[in-house]
Write a structure and sequence with these properties.
This protein is an alpha+beta fold. The chain has one domain: Clavaminate synthase-like (Double-stranded beta-helix, 4-Layer Sandwich). It contains five helices and 16 strands. The strands form four sheets. Strands 1, 2, 3, 4, 6, 14 and 16 form a seven-stranded mixed sheet that branches. It has a four-stranded antiparallel sheet with strand order 5-15-7-13. A three-stranded antiparallel sheet has the order 9-8-12, covered by helices on one side. Helix 3 crosses helix 4. The longest helix is centred in the C-terminal third of the chain and has 19 residues. The two termini are 15 Å apart. The structure holds fe (ii) ion. Fe (ii) ion binds next to loops.
């Protein structure tokens, strides 16, 4: 992946590549600054960084709060579950709640591939989750990085790729924000993605058709075909990723009771140098 960096926009060498994550382990004996700098360095070379299992901290949010301040500037992510307005709180819980299964945040259903910042005018550069409790079965987090996406589209549906690059789409979510962007744009180090099927507003039938075609492509040619990367986070593990350089989603999981699966999500902005 490093060799693909520093190329002019639009000339990425995506030949036969696959989405990968850098995997790092943190030594419990080191201070939060060392852990944070290690994660930040890893994110300078990889779109996805999987922080391997460690004993879950008794106050895990406080533990990660101390580390991530050395990765980037915190962007508050929490939103009101009904109005989607931002609450100003830094952590957003992604918890199974049998009473609130109408949202992906609380359901046990599969979540299609998307970027979190699709409807946000000022999105986080990095999204991260740590796992407090994993479901009894399944619940893997899925990733497809932008270079693999472009590679697959070039090979299997170049016309769709052309549409996704050419035509801006409007994304919105209640009071949470509204943005117009092309689904795939050129960027300095990787194509830049903006996608959330459920937040699209099509202006006409042609645009709706291209949105539906891309949704099917991701479901059938990527997720059902087992492409991309699947990470089943265990308690104590975390994953950090460049939101606009990857699509993420999840597989369905088994759950019955409140909090049978519980992830905590945060967002960061990177300053210069990462
Ligand atoms: Fe997400």
């Amino acid at each position: 992946m490093v060799a693909e960096r520093n190329m002019p926009p639009g000339t990425y060498d995506a030949s036969a590549r696959r989405t990968r994550a850098a995997r790092i382990e943190l030594d419990d004996g080191r201070p939060p600054r060392v852990h944070g700098e290690r994660i930040r360095d890893a994110l300078a070379h990889a779109d996805i960084v999987h922080v391997a299992a460690r004993a879950p901290a008794s106050d895990a949010r406080k533990h990660w709060d101390a580390i991530v301040r050395y990765v980037g500037e915190r962007k508050p992510l929490d939103e009101n579950a009904i109005t989607f307005e931002r609450t100003g709180r830094t952590w957003l819980d992604v918890r199974f709640d049998p009473q609130r299964q109408h949202t992906f945040r609380h359901s046990c259903t599969a979540q299609p591939l998307h970027t979190d910042g699709a409807y946000d005018r000022d999105p986080a550069d990095i999204i991260f989750f740590f796992c407090e409790r994993q479901a009894p079965a399944n619940g893997e987090t899925l990733f497809l990085d932008a270079l693999e996406l472009v590679f697959l589209l070039e090979r299997e549906d170049p016309k769709l790729l052309e549409q996704l690059r050419a035509r801006p789409v409007t994304f919105s979510k209640g009071d949470g924000g509204r943005k117009e962007a092309t689904v795939i744009a050129d960027g300095a180090e990787s194509p830049v993605l903006c996608w959330n099927y459920y937040r699209t507003e099509a202006r006409d039938g042609e645009e709706r058709a291209s949105i539906e075609r891309f949704r099917s492509f991701l479901e059938e040619r990527v997720v059902a075909a087992g492409r991309g990367l699947s990470i089943r986070l265990e308690p104590g593990e975390a994953v950090f990723f460049h939101d606009a350089r990857t699509l993420h989603g999840r597989r369905a999981f088994e759950a019955k009771r409140l909090d049978d699966r519980l992830l905590w999500k945060g967002g960061l902005r990177l300053g210069r140098g990462a």
